[in-house]
Inverse folding.
């Protein structure tokens, strides 16, 4: 994750909602390739990063259901380097989006 992009996104969310957050999608009703394929907001990305609810909770983050299933926001206490580093460490490195057709 590019920290400055994540920081900007969280600041924008704060301006809109009063909560520092970033958007994520959970694979609740299907597997990751299916979610990546079905969600237009994900299908456009060439790479995605994966985590688990357990890892995010273990790092002290709360998931807020927003905009309808399977969309959630990860709530951040602040946008400090420490918080963003902890968030970064909660995700695997980027992988090719499994919902996009192979080229």
């Amino acid at each position: 994750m590019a920290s400055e992009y994540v920081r900007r996104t969280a600041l924008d969310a704060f301006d809109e909602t009063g909560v520092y957050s970033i958007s994520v999608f959970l694979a609740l009703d299907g597997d990751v390739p299916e979610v990546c394929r079905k969600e237009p907001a994900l299908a456009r990305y060439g790479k995605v990063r994966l985590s688990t609810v357990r890892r995010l909770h273990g790092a002290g983050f709360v998931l807020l259901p927003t905009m309808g299933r399977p969309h959630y926001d990860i709530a951040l206490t602040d946008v400090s380097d420490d918080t963003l580093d902890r968030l970064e460490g909660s995700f695997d490195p980027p992988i090719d989006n499994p919902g996009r057709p192979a080229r």
